[in-house]
Design goal:
The chain is of the alpha/beta class. The chain has two domains: about 180 residues, 3-Layer(bba) Sandwich (FAD/NAD(P)-binding domain), CATH 3.50.50; about 120 residues, FAD/NAD(P)-binding domain, CATH 3.50.50. It has seven helices and 19 strands. α1 packs parallel to α2 and α5 runs parallel beside α6. The structure holds NADPH dihydro-nicotinamide-adenine-dinucleotide phosphate.
Length: about 325
């Protein structure tokens, strides 16, 4: 059996929440160990330009921001590791975690910053332009600005889709909303808001067949009405997907209290505490409302400070 490693503070996940927690924990001499997870750098690595993170007046690319956050965490000697945590056992006072190589780690404190993943339709053309950074996005607040004065399409019919369609309508000349059923899932107030916005066109019973492009950027969307079979092409330069997010919390099931959609529940509002003493959460794994880099970073700071206080109270 391989040797068990003991750590003061294990941070799981490498988005803005995880790295901010690492910066604070490292500066407090907690010698944090951070596992980067399946997508090193997190969701920002699929974003082009970040223009709304304070302190970057000229903007910064998502991947570049994550490189800088990692460098800042390493500057204070955070032990940043490739790999991911596949299993935990939070039943005792020592929090046990296992990596994909079955290495066992015993952590006094754990900061969960595993984030959430935006859901996509899964079409090949959608994934192609997403990877190219050519006009497919799952975050209107992040990327809507790049489509000012242009036409966009948004898929979804929940509160997020309505909120994002309304956000886009203020920037874009026209927003076409593709709703797969003949009704919205969103609340009445949100639905009314999009229905009453003149430059939002709602197409019900409409599925996306393909995202069209010139090989570099999106130029349109090919759609089909599931009731009539009618197909048409909608010109657009931005294709937004707002069909929900999946929090990356599966491994914590049974140990950490999750809500009905899998988001981690805060045990005490206004803190980063979970139902397990010594285990804290930061970022999108517990946030289905704001989902911003800056809010993730803020809660990462909170988690590190809460972890430090927990360690102090335990006499470390
Ligand atoms: P939801 O799960 O509520 O809605 C997802 C929407 O996407 C549904 O309309 C669904 O259609 C549609 N959808 C799913 N898969 C596909 C697909 N493959 N093709 C086309 N459409 C698809 O997610 P949200 O992100 O909107 O909201 C998550 C939670 O956050 C909700 O509880 C919501 O109320 C809350 N929220 C609240 C806000 C607020 O109050 N300001 C703002 C944002 C979110 P269908 O209806 O047919 O299943």
């Amino acid at each position: 059996m391989s040797e068990i490693e003991k750590v003061n503070c294990l941070i799981i996940g490498s988005g803005p929440a995880g790295f901010t927690a690492a910066i604070y924990a490292a500066r407090a001499d907690m010698k944090p160990v951070l596992y980067q997870g399946m997508q090193p750098g997190g969701q920002l690595t699929t974003t082009n330009e970040v223009e709304n993170f304070p302190g970057y007046p000229d903007g910064i690319s998502g991947p570049e921001m994550m490189v800088q956050l990692e460098a800042q965490a390493k500057r204070f000697e955070t032990d940043v590791r490739y790999g991911f945590i596949t299993k935990v056992d939070f039943t005792g006072p020592i929090h046990k975690c296992w990596t994909e190589e079955n290495k066992e780690i015993h952590a006094t404190t754990v900061i969960i910053s595993t984030g959430a993943s935006a859901k996509y339709l899964g079409l090949e053309s959608e994934q192609k332009y997403l990877q190219l950074g050519g006009g497919v996005s799952a975050c209107a607040v992040c990327d809507g600005f790049f489509y000012r004065g242009q036409e966009t399409v948004i898929v979804g019919a929940g509160d997020s889709a309505c909120e994002e369609a309304h956000y886009l309508s203020k920037l874009c000349t026209k927003v076409t909303m593709l709703v797969r059923r003949d009704e919205f899932r969103a609340s009445k107030i949100m639905t009314d808001r999009v229905k009453n916005t003149p430059n939002i066109e709602i197409l019900f019973n409409t599925d996306t067949v393909e995202v069209l492009g010139d090989g570099n950027v999106v130029t349109g969307t090919h759609v089909k009405n599931s009731k009539t079979g009618e197909e048409r092409t909608i010109p657009c330069t931005g294709f937004f997907v707002a069909i929900g997010h999946q929090p990356n919390t599966d491994i914590f099931k049974g140990f950490i209290d999750l809500d009905e959609t899998g988001y981690i529940k805060y045990a005490q509002p206004g803190t980063s505490k979970t139902n397990v003493a010594g285990v804290f959460v930061a970022g999108d794994a517990a946030d289905k409302t704001y989902r911003q880099a800056i809010t993730a970073a803020g809660t990462g700071c909170m988690a590190a400070l809460d972890a430090e206080r927990y360690m102090a109270a335990m006499g470390h």
